[in-house]
Amino acid sequence: MGRVITLLGLLIVTVVLGLIGYSYSGLMRPETREISQPVVLDVD
């Protein structure tokens, strides 16, 4: 039973480190674009 818990812990640590590495690699950058929208001001 101890080996299973150790293996599961190692797997969880590996997955977490993989996700952190993937997020810092730059592959998860959001798509950016410029949006312009006219604004009508109701000034009396």
What are the salient characteristics of this protein?
44 residues; mainly alpha; 52% helix; rod-shaped
Structure description:
The protein has 44 residues and is mainly α. It has a domain at 1-26. Helix content is 52%, strand content 0%. It contains one helix and no strands. The protein is rod-shaped, with a radius of gyration of 24 Å. The mean pLDDT is 90.
Summarize the entry for a quick read.
The protein is an all-alpha fold and 44 residues long.
Write the layout of secondary structure elements.
Layout lengths: L1 H23 L20
The major beta sheet can be summarized as: none
Element-by-element helix/strand order:
H
Between the first and last Cα atoms, what is the distance in angstroms? 78 Å
Approximate strand percentage: under 5%
| Shape verdict | rod-shaped
Topology, number of strands = 0
What's the rounded overall pLDDT mean?
90
Note poorly predicted spans.
none
Structural class by helix and strand composition:
mainly alpha
